[in-house]
């Protein structure tokens, strides 16, 4: 199945009753604000349905209560919800960003419009078989624990095993997130511990707060960057014969959506 495709836009929705990722088309009438990858709303572009270069599917996972839903709400709407309403099954949010590739000598390369689909999974054990079925279709993972809960940190290892067993490959793009950094008095996991674990898995680590917004955009941007770079490598690999014969440069090309293959 293609992990890299264009799909019709749909608003936030709850898909607790479906067993496979499934989106049905919905007319898109609104204008949408586009933010840059750095999160600064530097430009507003009018877009119609399908007016984007890439659809990227990210998935948030981790124990119940670590703040997945709240984190994604902060990222898409820049708001904080202090209420705990546990997620039932699976849910998703969407956001569009501009991804700038790097040109030669650190200059800015091409700008791509990216439609981010952010899948929000239930952390509760009873939904496990449903949520892990969604891992296969995600291109990157926000693996989250709660800095005020040692148990949620210990469970990161289990989530990693689940990922390795169910994601598109054994070495998918992941960012480790220690959330609730705004609660230092209740902290149970120190930064060194968490960084050591992230280093062990060779993945980036961020301490975030959905309450203040600290590092929320940075964590998502880092994951998107990993995904785009991996895709670029795949395109380069698949285009080697072309390049040898004087074909294209092998850089990401928004006109020709590429299939994301595992480069591990
Ligand atoms: P499940 O849906 O059950 O898997 O939980 P979840 O991981 O989605 O947790 P949720 O986002 O619902 O957050 C749980 C509680 O933690 C809520 O009351 C949030 O307001 C709170 N919370 C989430 N992130 C933060 C944060 O960064 N700081 C603080 N202080 N509270 C947070
Ligand atoms: Mg939730």
From TrEMBL:
Keywords: Acetylation, Disulfide bond, Endosome, GTP-binding, Hydrolase, Lipoprotein, Membrane, Methylation, Nucleotide-binding, Prenylation. Residues 13-22 have a biased composition (Polar residues). It is found in: Late endosome; Membrane. Residues 252-264 have a biased composition (Basic and acidic residues). Its EC number is 3.6.5.2. It is a lipid-anchor. GO terms for molecular function: G protein activity; GDP binding; GTP binding; myosin V binding; protein domain specific binding. GO terms for biological process: multivesicular body sorting pathway; positive regulation of exocytosis. It holds the Pfam family Ras. One of its GO terms (cellular component) is Golgi stack. Residues 1-26, 239-264 are annotated as: Disordered. InterPro entries: P-loop_NTPase, Rab27a/b, Small_GTP-bd, Small_GTPase, Small_GTPase_Rab. The keyword Translocase does not apply. It catalyses: GTP + H2O = GDP + phosphate + H(+). PANTHER family: LD44762P. Belongs to the small GTPase superfamily. Rab family. This is small monomeric GTPase. It comes from Physeter macrocephalus (Sperm whale).
């Amino acid at each position: 199945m293609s992990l890299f495709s264009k799909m019709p836009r749909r608003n936030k929705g709850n898909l607790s009753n479906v067993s496979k990722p499934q989106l049905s088309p919905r007319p898109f009438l609104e204008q949408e604000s586009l933010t840059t990858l750095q999160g600064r709303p530097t430009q507003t572009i009018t877009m119609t349905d399908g007016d984007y270069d890439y659809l990227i599917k990210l998935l948030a996972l981790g124990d119940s209560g670590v703040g997945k839903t709240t984190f994604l709400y902060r990222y898409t709407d820049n708001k904080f919800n202090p209420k705990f309403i546990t997620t039932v099954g699976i849910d998703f949010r969407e956001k569009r960003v501009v991804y700038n590739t790097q040109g030669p000598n650190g200059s800015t390369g091409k700008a791509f419009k990216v439609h981010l689909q952010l899948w929000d999974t239930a952390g509760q054990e009873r939904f496990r078989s449903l949520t892990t079925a969604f891992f296969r279709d995600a291109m990157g993972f926000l693996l989250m624990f709660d800095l005020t809960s040692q148990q949620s940190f210990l469970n990161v290892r289990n989530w990693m095993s689940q990922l390795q067993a169910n994601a598109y490959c054994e070495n998918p793009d992941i960012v480790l997130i220690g959330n609730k950094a705004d609660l230092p008095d209740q902290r149970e996991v120190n930064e060194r511990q968490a960084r050591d674990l992230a280093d062990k898995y060779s993945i980036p680590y961020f301490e975030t707060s959905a309450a203040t917004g600290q590092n929320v955009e940075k964590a998502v941007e880092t994951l998107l960057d990993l995904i785009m770079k991996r895709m670029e490598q795949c395109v380069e690999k698949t285009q080697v014969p072309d390049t040898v014969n004087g074909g294209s440069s092998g850089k990401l090309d928004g006109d020709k959506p590429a299939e994301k293959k595992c480069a591990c």
